[in-house]
Amino acid sequence: MSAALTRSPARLLVPALVFIALVVAAVASLGMPLITSVATTFHVSLDSAQWTLTITLLSGAVATPVLGRLGTGRHRRATILATLAIVVVGSALTVLPLPFAWLLVGRAAQGIGLGLTALMMGVARDHLPEKRGAATIALISVVSIIGAGVGYPLAALLAEFGGLRAAYGLGLLVTAIALLTAWRSIPAAPEGRFAHVNVAGALVLAGGLFLVLFLAGERSLWGRHLAVAVSLAVAAVLLLCLWTASELRSTTPLVDVRAVRHPAVAGANIAMFVGGSGMYLLLTLITRYAQTPHSAGYGFGLSTFVAGLVLIPFSVLGFVAGKLTQRVRERIDGPLLLAGSAAIVGGGFVLFAVARSNLAELLVAMGLLGFGVGGFSAAMPGVILAVTPKSETSSAMSFNYVVRSVGYSLGSAIGGLVLAVGTGRLFPNEAAYTTAALLGVAAMAITTMTSLALARRRSRPRI
Fold first, then answer.
1. Is the N end or the C end of the chain the one with fewer CB atoms within 10 Å?
2. Where are the transmembrane segments (predicted)?
3. Residues with Cβ < 8 Å from 357, sequence gap 6 or more?
4. DSSP H helix total and E strand total for the chain
5. DSSP letters along 56-98, please?
6. First to last CA, the chain
7. Cα 172 to the chain's mean position, in Å?
């Protein structure tokens, strides 16, 4: 590696890390507004088209812990470049006039890029001064969340005026730029680090996560083939228990499970799981409600593109909250910031439950969601990394992002299940949205209490 690259200045490194994290998040979210277009273009069912989104979450959840472990070693730069190259190839497959199966392969390859977020944090912690590194890590965490709010309206606009291939073409363009940016800006990892990937453990974890996310996405399986669904759920639990036991015995674990058991890390991951479920549930409810036609007796009948614009308050206020969190975190403890952010999201649920008769109310609820998610995402890394060695940054945060992915999938599944139970002839009864919102209030209350308990433990004087 050239000396110029080794001396990559922080002023170029920070925007590069943030840009790469934003790109992989936005590209992964491209499937959300394009499901109907995929079904029409490829002449497949909506359930099949839904896999263009589901498969990115699956591949991302499986790849994240593996990339996180590789990111702790000396080949982190090569890992980042190779992963981005895979994402670029996957993006090309989504643009080329190939059969539907190849589109799914391309979307799976794009999902692998989700595992890079934790590696960006590892780079920031190793190569930036402590204060700026912490601020950059918080910003990376925020943009990895609000990337969906950036990608959704852009993809919907391109699909509306240029067709499906134009929307996916945007993904190819930005991922190619991200690869070039990484090649020019990402420095090598510090000397003396080594990473060994437990392949057997990775395969067991992949199998368990695949079953969990598959069962969360295939809601119809629970209604039509309950015995099969229960059997797969039991298999998932057994695989994850087997993986945990093997990780505890391994001298080179994929994830340092002993570190995950630290009260601060365990509490943060519980908050991430429950809170992530609630946050994604509200995002799903608002976007679906906004697109419901007036003929259902409620809703606003917005087009895919206009519904995407509803996400603008989410992205803008999420970014604002992330910046504010960076400024106040030295005066307010991280778990208290998590609790406050969760309470704000809970307020968004309450507003959506009682007031959604006009579009302005939906925009306010979406703004509250964005502000809460932004603050929560910015505070989370600080809580975990405060008790994590520098060398384990990527691995610790990758586990947190796996927890987040599972939580998001669960939130989406809960929303779909509640709305499906309350479905009338064509659309859910409006009361089903209220029921789902109340479940979200409960989830955010649990998250708030978990975070407060973590704050009390941290503030307890040591004897």
1. C
2. 12-36, 48-68, 80-102, 108-124, 136-159, 165-183, 195-216, 222-243, 264-286, 298-322, 334-356, 362-387, 408-427, 433-455
3. none
4. 21, 0
5. HHHHHHHHHHHHHHHTTSTTHHHHHHHHHHHHHHHHHHHHSS-
6. 49
7. 20
Query: Measured at the alpha carbon of residue 385, what is the angle toward residues 380 and 389, in degrees to the nearest 5?
Result: 165
pLDDT, tens digit (0-9, with 9 covering 90-100), for 181-238: 999 999 988 776 666 777 777 788 888 888 887 787 676 777 678 888 899 989 999 9
Homologous superfamily, domain 1-196 = MFS general substrate transporter like domains (1.20.1250.20)
Beta-bridged to residue 423, according to DSSP, are 428
Beta bridge partners of 428: 423
Among residues 434, 16, 379, the alpha carbon closest in space to that of 186 is found at 16
SS3 428: strand
Cα–Cα distances in Å, from 377 out to 132, 325, 408, 414? Answer: 17, 9, 14, 22
Phi/psi of residue 387, nearest 5 degrees:
-120, 20
* 122 neighbors 72 (Cβ within 8 angstroms): yes
CATH of domain 255-458: 1.20.1250.20
What pairs with residue 199 in β-bridges?
A: none
Contact at 8 Å (CB) between 271 and 373?
A: no
Tokens 């974890």 identify what position? 205
- DSSP codes joined into one string, 41-59: HHT--HHHHTHHHHHHHHH
Instruction: Indicate the length of the chain as a whole number.
Output: 463
Whole-model pTM: value is 0.82
